[in-house]
Amino acid sequence: MVGKRIMVGEFGRPHGVRGLLRLRAFTADPAAITAYGPLSDEAGTRQFRLTLKGPDLVAVEGVADRDAAQRLTGTKLFVAREALPPTEEEEFYLADLIGLRAVTEAGDVLGVVRAVEDHGGGAFLVVEGRQELLLPFTRQVVPMVDIAAGQLLVVLPAEIVVPPESGKEAAA
User: How far is CA 161 from the centre of its chain?
Assistant: First the structure.
């Protein structure tokens, strides 16, 4: 997936007066965030080289004082998808789900995964089609993910009502 970038962390508040920053790492091993090479901001216009100084503390190359560190607070950090380690069988990065078709067992296309969000209660898929669906990303609701085929199987929970379509084509 050339060009896809994945958010791996975010700068927090400054620490001290020498330009150190708190870091929220979204990697399985928080220390691994420095192994992916330079990270970039969301627009891809700035690059950051980090040196880990503690479990959640980093020095950023070129940032030497608290004021410069303060300006970076809240900056989301991205890495090219290709820089991340390969996944195991039946394992994938949530960002790989974006763009997949959501298909029911009957073969009806519900739409395309526009986003994967997690606000603390577990991940859910935002599926855009004739109507937007928010689906819990659980094995019960999404029993099969096929990245190579570009789709995932969806078993709609009883709480989600999707009006019948006049055919099996997607509105996406």
Answer: 27
Rg (CA), the chain: 20
Q: CB–CB of 58/14 below 8 Å?
A: no
- Cβ–Cβ under 8 Å, residues 9 and 57: no
Average pLDDT estimate for 117-145: 91
Residues 26 and 7: beta-carbon distance below 8 Å: yes
The per-residue pLDDT for 168 is 54
Q: What are phi and psi of 140, to 5 degrees?
A: -70, -40
| DSSP state at residue 166 | S
Cβ atoms within 10 A of the Cβ of 28, count?
7
DSSP state of 97: G
For the chain, what's the residue count? 172
